[in-house]
Design a protein that fits this description.
Shape: globular
Order of helices and strands: HEEHHHHEEEHEHEEHHHHEEH
Number of strands: 10
Number of helices: 12
Strand order of the largest sheet: 1-2
Strand content: 5-15%
Helix content: 55-70%
Largest sheet: 2 strands, antiparallel
Length: about 400
Amino acid sequence: MYFGWDKVSKKFHLASTWLTAIGANLSAVWILIANAWMQYPVGMEFNPESARNEMVDFAEVVFSPVAMNKLFHTATSAFMLASVVVIGISCWYLLKERNREYAVKSMKVAAVFGLVSALLLAYSGDGSAYNVAKHQPMKLAAMEGLYNGGNGAPLVGFALLDPDKKMGDGEDPYLFSISVPKALSFLATRDFNGFVPGIEDIINGGYTYTDADGVEKVAIPFEQKRAKGLMAIEALKEYNRAANTGNDSLKMQAAAALEENFSYFGYGYLESAEDSVPPVALTFYAFRVMVILGGYFILFFIVILYMLKKGCFAAAGKRIKWFLYLAVASVPLVYICSQSGWIVAEVGRQPWTIQDLLPVQAAVSGVSASNVYTTVVIFFVLFTVLLVAELKIMFNQIKKGFENIK
């Protein structure tokens, strides 16, 4: 795809381009499904014999609402990112007063594709927030810096968090805030007066919620979750002891106790309620960076389409130079937007490697620390070399331009 211009036929080069795109997206499908399962583990059963979660329903894993939404949201995010990069490169050509025709045509395609992607991204982002509210309420509470929830909860547009805020101190978590009344309740429950739990509500329990099967339940407090987790861990130990001694009756009792308490297995590894709360400030600010930049790029594409329609890029002009510089500067911004989304997704689910089942501190293997360090260093060096090589190829191609391509 990079080096095939004028070396192979146009059809063969086009095929290689499409195969690269399809291959990259297929790779993303399975990576994102695996990530979604870690956020919302479904389609599996825990096997006490192997101490592993084993898949029993492939379709449930692949087509879970979290997996489908994560795939859609991440793909459209990547499409938007690519569109901004194409527009930024095109505007760089216009600033250099070269490849004008090619640059303008590229901008037309990228702006249309980018706007559609950005709008779909906003739509899937709403679905993502709804799924988070249902399956990872603590993440949503951290995203909003919400310590005490309630009915008709407002959505914080922007705020400064109080760095001295502590759980249970009764203090306002914001130094100042700009909010949209009842918007968070609608986002999370599709009801403007719906109840949205805060961090302290989730820790203390006692509120009513609807589970994934549509059954209304009363949330239990952290200490009760931890007690169930400890019972599940002990039941697994008892199962192994019974299996080793051949005591089938005790083995069945232990298996039943494990199954009853398994939903809270991971809480048995947490020492305190504070351990179940993700880093609030990082999650809160990353979410706002993502949303603000996402809104900026929707406006960005609309403005570009308007300027293209008015022929603003058809000839060189100092009056639009500022916009060309803005477009080039938007390239790093779109990467920041994308990475902010991943910070929300991954930092916001802490302390869990697998939601409710396996916290980070328990997700360890028997590999020695020296082997881990060596592997990390090798990967760091390898991927740094690949990154430098990729950027050099891209920058050289951009500088070279397209004058000689037929």
